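ok trying again, last paste got cut off:
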Amino acid sequence: MIPYYVFIIILFTVYEITGLAEVSLFQWLFCLFNLQGLNYTYWKFEAYGAVAGIGPLWFITTIMLCYLLTPIANKFRNIRIKKGWILLLVVLVFVGQAGAMYCGFQLHYLIVYFLGYFTGANKVRTDKKYYLIISALMIIITGLRFYLRSVIDGTDFYDLYFALISAGIIGVWIFYTVYFIKDRFPYIFDKTAGKFLTFMEMISYYVYITHYLWIKSPFAPSRYLHNKILSNFLAVVGIFILAVALWALTEKIIIKSLFSRKTKKEKENENSVIGNG
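nice, full thing came through this time. structure:
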């Protein structure tokens, strides 16, 4: 939440000073309580209108919901996952989300999160047969996504159901691929891909927070340049620079300062206890 708060407070303040975009008091409060994603969890909720440049940050509300529900899942983390349960969760993704969609709820991300949670808790190892099945499923679903987009793009079935299902399948496949390679080539993985993935892990959340600012906001290069290649290149550069700057401000200054103060206070308490002893 700290990098999220740093980003929106600075951005909203810039908007207030420059007038580049409007931010109402309601939007300020909604974002400060991290409720901007409620209309994505329950589609019929239309009280909040996204502020320019932070549209995708609805996902942080979803992350918060996952974390709030995690203590409940933690009580069942030692239960051994059976293959039938995985099949049940897959059915819930496909069938359950279809039913929830017509009621206005979007549960897909929660289901995928807990599928990953229990898989990690049980330290499920990769299996060649299941990797081939997941890969085949990913290829089929992705192909269908491109086809359906050309036919029914903009409909509830595509936007609120199939696009989400296909994104989830691709996400599962990416993670399974990483673990599959790491299990079979651990030394090579750690020496090559491991360093790259460590760097990407370091800034990925910050890229996610800042990227839309350079795509659809008053700061987007495409608003001022007609050359798509150049505007996209500048957007990528801007995303990277701002993401690293937000990472440095958050991790190296704010969080480090808070942690250092806490550590200093703990040391003082320890010294006090020793002195009293």
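cool. The first helix runs from residue 2 to 18. The chain has a mean pLDDT of 83.
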